[in-house]
Write the structure tokens for this entry.
Amino acid sequence: MDSTSRRLMTMKVRVRFAPSPTGYLHIGGARTALFNWLYARHTGGTFILRIEDTDAARNSQEAVNVILEGLRWLGLHWDEGPLTGEATGPAKGDRGPYFQSQRKDLYQRRVEALLSRDLAYEKDGAIRFRMRTEPVVIDDLVVGRVTRELTDREALDPDFVIVRSDGQPVFHFVNVVDDLEMGITHVIRGEDHLSNTAKHIALFEAFGVPPPRYAHIPLILNQDGSKMSKRDRGASLDTYQREGFAPEAVVNFLCLLGWSPKNDKTKLDLKEVVEMFDLPQILRHNARFDMTKLLWLNGEYIRSMAPDRYHELAVHALARDGIDTNAFPVAYVRAALDTCKEKVKLFSEVKQFAGFYFQDEFDYEPEAAQKHFIAENRPLVARLREVFAGLASFDAASLEAALKSTAAGLGVKVGQLVHPVRLACTGRSIGPSLYHLLEVLGKERVLQRLDRALARMG
RNA sequence: GGCGCGUUCGUCUAUCGGCUAGGACAUAGCCCUCUCAAGGCUGAAAGACGGGUUCGAUUCCCGUACGCGCUACCA
């Protein structure tokens, strides 16, 4: 073991997620944040959020808020970093500011230090760093030992710009200065930065400071293997926030992209992941994003979700879809939502499954109405209506018994009653268990809806 | 073009030289069933290619192909 690794081993881990506020949080960025968070929690270290808002033109407070809200939604809370999207706003941690736009003096001082030692020089109004020409060895914790040779262009001129002629320092420079000043011990980032790491290491050496350990994680690709860009469906985290995914399912799925618990478990306990997670086990190849599997996982999470959590998310989804459940008794809402818990894969589906509980006026599915609301069924449904009306106890078991004996008495299959009744009471041909849904609706609503449907049957 | 990284079922992955290559999603069939799901059972489905090393290679080495990344006064 060299002295650098020994020093780092005794040092408390400090990792950071350093997104640029572009207006959306890329799913790959979310995974990078997750891996940094997991490593910090695993080692008892510190997870830092730093906003790389050097490109003033396209940065805004709203764009930063998208990132903050995305991370909060995922449950990836940071130990140091901004508390709001405002660059000059409050922050926690003593190594700030955590916005690059507020760190200009720091960069200026570092530039002058390099200039004064002739490690950098001015050319055409820009400031360039004297890059070494020997290969740079990167001991990456994920990829292994990488020896970065000069490219053909670099062989001609290895130096690179660190401050543009307009006075703006470039990414490679500010990134290194910040990691240095903030005492970052491990840089966990996308593999797209691997080649550039040589520059970063050279810069650290120029400052006379040992570089942090690097861990370059593979990229997340589209289903077809192409690069996932802003426009691709599922590339932006807000897709999941809006479409009714449970954050815990998204986090679980992201854990499985490039990392695995080495057993056959798919549904993971985050606490266990924190215990097991480590950098060397991260896979070295890119992964494709399988939305179908995430959807399945989300359904798994919903099915096994704690009741309170499920109701909270379901009610929230309904509200977003224009259904105010506050107008109904809490017990009714809970009972109604419970009948759908095992049916939905997404919270955005809750309205389709449970909407009828909260609105009396709804249209019938045309095809189903044509099939089930026929004259032939009218006397059958009418008979059942009377049986239901006479029931002393309107619970699922009684309803089932009543419906089945009525069907038997009429000499028809159970389905011949079930389908028209379901359609009459819900407007749809699919939905929760019929008997349970009738129980929740209650006798009054059920009879009303049956009457309304009977009026349309022949 | 140069530099770097990668390559196990369609997809995510297990395997750290002994494999009849395991699991999950998706998919096919069957069962269950009031719809839709869920669940149960069964099936099909993989080591990019070519050379080495080895008693033995998915596993180690080299080459080729393919994919991805970087190669900016973008981040």
User: Anything to note?
Assistant: The first helix of chain A runs from residue 3 to 9. The mean pLDDT of chain A is 93. Residues 322 and 351 of chain A are 9 Å apart (CA to CA).
